[in-house]
Write a structure and sequence with these properties.
With 401 residues, the protein is α/β, with parallel strands linked by helices. It has 17 helices and eleven strands.
């Protein structure tokens, strides 16, 4: 039995993770869950899984009131808006904690064996570092941990004896393809991209796309931010940076190829010209399960079965770098190193937020990212605090431009 903490349990990855865990009550037990602000769903999850720890970041009093409104005969929830102070414990009975500090606290629970980090954004970085220093396995779905933290995260794992097992379908696929092989046998890693909703669009067409257009992903159902990242291909830049740190390969041996069907999640080419690919239907449940069971595999009767006849017609295309420059910008940031990946990630997050609120055009996203990179890529990067300072500077730049 492995004890699991799910950070970001009310998001798409977190919800899928709990579905997977529920199918295997003899193998996994939920001991902690946290959410950003969805108190109602968090309460449902608490009732279903009975974790010892429940935390909510609750960024404003409105959401804190939402927690208070949930109280019932056995809820034990006692809180009003005036009590909304960081780290406040709602009750000993329910162990609810408010504030961003709940992420690190949950990630370092003594009973936890595996921490699924499904937090969206930079808020997940410190939790990853803390969990690794505490010797936990981190099932990592938080891209920012490695993009921002890079070698600092790897050093934390070395200090504490923790390990990172990727949850992202692309990196899970690479891990599965590499298992049993040495790095000297590998020629190249291929990360596949669906191409997003605007694959094949001209520059003129991209000038007029809307938020609604960008959120219509052809194969995956994801959150708003990551769906826009898929449309710009910024998500693939982040995945290349992650792959560099996860598997130790240089950037010139990691390639991105467009694969519209999203059936092949990544491929590894070996020195003898053999290519091993991991294939499966577009579902996050498979890589989530593998992150919990790795290096073993367990029977999952509720998983998504692959039908080779239904899913025929696999194709590949080159990336349109001219019309989707965010990918090349991100890979260049990764190669630059230091704070550059953190600046790229923060500028992209801020730019996507502006696009979603209607204050920035789709084609302007890479322009403001490039501006932030040119201004802040050389800031010091010796500590995680310095990287957060660069992160904030990049966000401020994008908001002002």
């Amino acid at each position: 039995m492995r004890n699991i903490v799910v950070l970001g349990s009310t998001g798409s990855i977190g919800v899928s993770a709990l579905k997977v865990i529920a199918r295997h009550p003899d193998k996994f037990k939920v001991v902690g869950i946290t959410a950003y602000q969805n108190a109602a769903l968090l309460r449902e999850q608490q009732l279903k899984f009975s974790p010892q720890y429940v935390g909510i970041v609750a960024p404003d009093n409105t959401q804190v009131n939402g927690v208070a409104d949930l109280k019932s005969g056995d809820s034990g929830l006692r809180l009003d808006a005036s009590d909304a102070t960081p780290g406040l414990r709602l009750s000993e009975k329910n162990n609810w904690v408010i504030g961003e500090s709940c992420l690190v606290e949950a990630a370092t629970l003594s009973d936890a064996d595996i921490v699924i980090n499904a937090v969206v954004g930079a808020a997940g970085v410190r939790a990853t570092i803390a969990a690794l220093e505490a010797g936990k396995r981190v099932a990592l779905a938080n891209k920012e941990s490695l993009v921002m933290g890079g070698e600092l995260v790897l050093q934390a794992a070395k200090r504490g004896g923790g390990e990172i097992v990727p949850v992202d379908s692309e990196h899970s696929a690479i891990l599965q393809c590499l298992t049993g092989s040495s790095s000297t046998e590998v020629e190249r890693i291929y990360i596949t991209a669906s191409g997003g909703p605007f694959r094949g669009f001209s520059k003129e067409q991209l000038e007029n796309v809307t938020v609604a257009d960008a959120l219509k992903h052809p194969t995956w159902s994801m959150g708003r931010k990551i769906t826009v990242d898929s449309a710009t291909l910024a998500n693939k830049a982040l995945e290349v940076i992650e792959a560099h740190y996860l598997f130790g390969f240089p950037y010139d041996r990691i390639s991105v190829v467009v694969h519209p069907q999203s059936l092949i999640h990544s491929m590894v080419e070996f020195v003898d010209c053999s290519v091993v690919a991991q294939i499966g239907v577009p579902s996050m449940e498979l890589p989530i399960l593998y992150s919990l069971s790795h290096p073993e595999r367990i029977v999952d009767n509720g998983g998504c079965k692959f039908d080779p006849f239904r899913h025929s017609g696999i194709s590949f295309e080159p990336v349109d770098s001219e019309n989707f420059p965010a990918l090349a910008l991100g890979i260049k940031a990764g190669m630059t190193g230091g704070v550059a990946p953190a600046v790229y990630n923060a500028a992209n997050e801020a730019a996507v937020a502006r696009f979603l609120d209607g204050s920035l055009k789709f084609t302007e996203i890479p322009l403001v990212i490039e501006g932030a990179l040119s201004k802040y890529s050389q800031l010091p990067a010796d500590s995680i605090e310095q990287r957060f300072e660069a992160d904030q500077a990049a966000r401020d730049y994008v908001r002002a431009h």
